[in-house]
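[job 0412] stage=complex_fold ligand=manganese (II) ion status=START
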Amino acid sequence: MIRDGRNVLVIAGPCSAESPMQLMHTAEELIKHVQPDVFRAGIWKARTRKGAFEGAGEIALQWLQEVKKQYGLQLATEVLTPKHVELCLRAEIDFLWIGARTVVNPFAVNEICQALNGTKVNVMVKNPVNPDVSLWAGAIERVQAARIQKIYAIHRGFSTFYKSPYRNMPLWEIPNELKRIFPHIPVLCDPSHICGKTQCIDQVMQHALDLEMDGFMIESHVNPLSAKSDKDQQLKPVELNTILQQLIYRRIDNQETKKLINLRNNIDAVDDQLLELLAKRMEIVHDIGDHKKKYGITILQSDRSRMLFNDRMEKGKDLHLNNDFIKDILRVIHNEAIRIQQEILNEQPTKRNKCN
Ligand code: PEP
Ligand code: MN
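[job 0412] stage=complex_fold status=DONE, emitting structure tokens
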């Protein structure tokens, strides 16, 4: 799909193939509103918890073939085993992707690559669920060694235990690093699995375009509310079209500008993480405050705070951070921790009500 002079690959379709009707109807709406380059649907679904919909299985390959016959769309699906690869090749699926849960396992990737070896199919490699660029790069190298001609990387975000506005944190510096490792491998963004809900998909897509990603894999379902998997993150085809129309497809001609934009985006990503970590730290401070109040312990234990300062100063030095800069930051953080604990230790129920 060419937009404002930029070539952007758009892969769209439901999270899972659920029935022939659902696939056909979704494809029809996508053709009408979006005209994607490729139609996606998961057939075998690796689910986190037992009891969730595990995909329609092999039969759905026939449903996908019908979609191709009817609408001329290229097809993409996920493969998790060599047997899946064999079945998909026989069904002439055009794009196969290796999912985030498979990429964490080099042994499984090897087995899949043996089945792919020397074939003409397009292969897409999702990032592993954990933020490990080497694991992602290692899977791509294995696909390269299987002599696959057209390889894509898909950035779908990284899972986290912490509270986050995302289902999977984008950690943009990781796909940026992957681009540095493989300058010729197109990177597509999967905003659906990053967001986990439809609300922030447009922002994530814009950010991906501004980082010069090469396209998108997006989940789109004719009736998201009835979807058997990932229903909160699937867009109706007409909604997807609205987002695609509103995106700004910036063209970057100037090398200097391009570099600056990349650097600034990296800074933004790091600042987001700093803020999340500060919030996490202050949450712990609250818990410590509650504990000290319960057991009547003083706020400031000078031994502990001396140890903390010395330790962080040493670590800062090892990381080549300026001494005074680290001292200033530690002081500000420490002061805020004391302020929060003071509030907790001195708070009277009535006073708190007054403040609120
Ligand atoms: C999917 O695209 O439906 C999927 C399961 O993706 P991931 O491997 O990124 O979780
Ligand atoms: Mn999904």
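The first strand starts at residue 2 and ends at 3.
[job 0412] exit 0
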